[in-house]
Design a protein that fits this description.
By secondary structure, this protein is α+β, with helices and mostly antiparallel strands. The chain has three domains: about 15-235 and about 400-450, Bira Bifunctional Protein, Domain 2 (BirA Bifunctional Protein, domain 2), CATH 3.30.930.10; about 250-380, YbaK/aminoacyl-tRNA synthetase-associated domain (YbaK protein), CATH 3.90.960.10; about 470-565, Anticodon-binding domain (Rossmann fold). Helix content is about 25%, strand content about 30%. The chain is built from 15 helices and 31 strands. The strands form eight sheets. Strands 3, 7, 8, 9, 10, 11, 12, 21 and 24 form a nine-stranded mixed beta sheet that branches. A five-stranded mixed beta sheet has the order 16-14-15-17-20. Strand 11 and strand 12 (about 225-230) form a beta hairpin. Helix 2 (about 45-65) packs across helix 11 (about 440-450). The longest helix has 21 residues, at about 165-185. The protein starts with 20 loop residues before the first helix and ends with a helix.
């Protein structure tokens, strides 16, 4: 490829709406262009990177027996109705000219399960099927370039097994394959326990990359390696010794006092860790009180996981007033018998606490959890914070901002049962196929690589995913000797299987150098009259800005060896 003939529309300035480094650099480097919110075109350079990431994924999935499919993006709504996911909030739906409803695929568990109905016997298992397919998700707030979009290409793979032991093995196979994929892409990932959310299943693991542009918080322990998404993380809390308190709760006036902090500062109040925070949620249409220690925050996904619900939202002011007779800030669960009450274990055995009296302007002191509050279910609800004790080794936990680049799930039989995917087992009995689901967002992986590998001059692509591995820059293409020497090096590298571009543009050298560094090409050979006068060209390595002169006749071999060494 000659740069003079390529479409590489580099920009000098960052896009006005970009905050994430990857968003800025992928636009400036001519990799992507935004069409509308959360929708991007992949330009030639972007597509080259995209294809190389896909190639790595294909190679690693082939090693574990993956077979590639290509499924439709337009899905009949009745299939999603069978699995109960027709109402998910990110789903795009439409009607055809006959009035039939169809959906744009946001993932393909149902369709692969539908195809798996053609499997008849356990002897045909295990199977691993995968595809690269465009997904559509109606994200409420698409942002950060390719990190949060509404249309994207995902590699989704699925395992099919006759036994839970088979699923365990397929899950581990994918875990190891993902580690290798991300390593080859130049990403250091943290594998964390995660909530399965609407996907369902017994276990899931997210592969996270630390970045300030991410939207997920991960709790981890440097001492023992414990790691979990904040939606799943737990910690050990120090003991609290409560005074005995009165024999029954005592109501006291708290005019104008509504928050945990205000109660803590109020005369006759209590510190935050001696208060009960009462939150009112509508959980699958059931009004529910969620109780936490006053200084703890609720993780909504934990509420969903703990109750097994598919949807939860904060109750509205009218719903709260109608059920409890008071407004937020004066709420409590003492004496409540007609509403579902769930509580975080940090409140277990606590006494002499302060909570709302379900009367505006009043609170109760001396509340005992065991004596005064009927708890229907105890479940982990609270958010773990920095510095709390690791649940495994009691060392201090860290909380870091991350972006998810991969997610693997043990689905079990949720989708096979819904879609009728069954096989005959060893005893001749029909049993549902046991499934796993495994996803990688290719565009998000590309953005994560840029988040990890960049500097003030632009992107620093790892060789395995770079749009070009080498650029041969001819300083002055009008100089015959320079042009011919650059052409010879370029052709030798092409012949040796190196992905190379020849920068033969009639531009100032500084422009060419800046473009090559912005685009992030790992290696550059610079051919100019001054160096050639001494039989030399310049070898430049983008990472580390290593620079040295090499013999013009050995230049292709030098850069080829460097590329091959880094490919490994």
């Amino acid at each position: 490829m000659r740069w003079s003939q390529a479409f590489i529309p580099t920009l000098r300035d960052d896009p006005a709406d970009a905050e994430a480094a990857s968003h800025k650099l992928l636009v400036r480097g001519g990799f992507i262009r935004q069409l509308m919110a959360g929708v991007y075109s992949q330009l030639p350079l972007g597509l080259r990177v995209h294809a190389k990431i896909e190639g790595i994924i294909r190679e690693e999935l082939a090693k574990i027996g993956g077979q590639e499919f290509s499924l439709p993006s337009l899905l009949p709504s009745d299939i999603l109705e069978k699995s109960g996911r027709i109402g998910v909030d990110v789903l795009f739906s439409l009607k055809d000219r006959h009035g039939a409803t169809a959906c744009l695929g946001f993932t393909h568990e149902e369709i692969f399960a539908w195809l798996a109905r053609e499997l008849r016997s356990y002897k045909q298992l295990p199977q691993i099927w995968f595809q690269f397919q465009t997904k559509f998700r109606d994200e409420e707030r698409p942002k950060s370039g390719l990190l949060r979009v509404r249309e994207f290409v995902m590699k989704d793979s699925y395992s099919f097994d006759a036994t839970s032991e088979g699923l365990d093995y397929a899950f581990q196979q994918h875990f190891e394959a993902y580690r290798k994929i991300f390593e080859r892409c130049g990403l250091d990932t943290l594998a964390v326990e995660a909530s399965s959310g609407s996907m369902g299943g017994s276990e899931s693991i997210e592969f996270m990359v630390e970045t300030t542009a991410g939207e997920d918080w991960v709790v981890s322990c440097a001492a023992c390696g414990y790691a979990a998404n904040v939606e799943k993380a737990t910690s050990l809390l120090g003991p609290i010794s409560d005074e005995a308190g009165p024999e029954a709760p005592e109501k006291f006036a708290t005019p104008g006092v509504h928050t945990i902090e205000e109660i803590a500062a109020f005369e006759g109040g209590a510190p935050a860790d001696c208060q009960i925070k009462t939150l009112v949620y509508v959980v699958d249409d059931q009004l529910t009180l969620a109780l936490l220690r006053g200084d703890h925050a609720l993780v909504e996904q934990k509420l969903l996981d703990g109750t097994g619900a598919t949807a939860a939202r904060p109750a509205g002011a009218d719903e709260i007033q109608g059920a409890l007779g008071a407004s937020a800030g004066s709420l409590g669960a003492v004496g409540v018998s007609d509403l579902r009450v769930v509580a975080d274990p940090a409140l277990t055995g606590r006494k002499n606490l302060v909570t709302g009296a379900n009367e505006d302007g009043f609170h109760l002191r001396g509340v005992s959890m065991e004596r005064d509050i009927r708890v229907d279910e105890w479940m982990d609800l609270r958010e773990v914070t920095e510095g709390e004790a690791c649940p495994l080794c009691e060392a201090e936990l860290a909380v870091r901002k991350t972006a998810e680049v991969g997610h693997i799930f043990k689905l079990g039989t949720k989708y096979s049962e819904a879609l009728g995917a069954q096989v005959l087992d060893k005893n001749g009995k029909q049993v549902p196929i046991i499934m796993g689901s495994y996803g990688i967002g290719v565009g998000r992986a590309m953005a994560a690589i840029v988040e990890r590998w960049n500097d003030d001059n632009g992107i620093i692509w790892p060789v395995n995913v770079a749009p070009f591995e080498v650029v041969v820059t001819v300083v002055n293409p009008k100089d015959v000797e320079s042009s011919e020497a650059g052409q010879r090096i370029y052709e030798q590298l092409l012949g040796d299987g190196i992905d190379v571009v020849l920068d033969d543009r009639d531009e100032r050298p500084g422009v060419k150098f800046k473009d090559a560094e912005l685009v992030g090409i790992p290696y550059r050979i610079t051919v100019g009259p001054k160096g050639l006068a001494n039989g030399k060209v310049e070898f430049f390595r983008r990472r580390g800005a290593e620079k040295r002169d090499v013999d013009v006749h050995k230049a292709a071999d030098v850069v080829q060896n460097a590329v091959l060494e880094e490919r490994r």
